[in-house]
Design goal:
By secondary structure, this protein is of the alpha+beta class. The chain contains three helices and three strands.
């Protein structure tokens, strides 16, 4: 190999330095693998999204604003997960269905 010192003391110093660098790289790899495992474990343990959402407007004491399908991108921050029966009940009580995800169609709800 070119660019290496010819004498033994400097070669030993270089060897020591490279061993330290390799140890640091291996430690960084181990830390990255641990982070990835923890992240994957968090993804695996994440609860499934609800099938239906009931969106409340700005007034939390007022009537619900809208019913959404579980993965609707239009659901607001004030929505909470509900089951199928509660979604059907909300639609029957006059809560409007989201015009984007159409939960009434997915639920098989026909007006009345």
């Amino acid at each position: 190999m070119p660019d290496l010192p010819p004498d033994l003391p400097r070669l030993r110093t270089l060897e020591t330095w490279l061993a330290m660098q390799l140890a640091q790289v291996r430690d960084a790899i181990a830390a990255a693998e641990t982070r990835e495992k923890e992240q994957q474990r968090g993804i695996d343990k994440r609860p499934a999204p609800p099938d239906w959402l009931l969106d409340h407007g700005l007034n939390r004491d007022g009537p619900p604003a809208c019913v959404h399908a579980g993965g609707c991108h239009m659901a607001g921050k004030r929505s909470r997960g509900i089951d199928r029966a509660a979604a059907l009940r909300a639609l029957a009580d006059g809560t409007p269905a989201c015009s984007h995800c159409r939960p009434d169609s997915e639920l098989g709800y026909l007006d009345g």
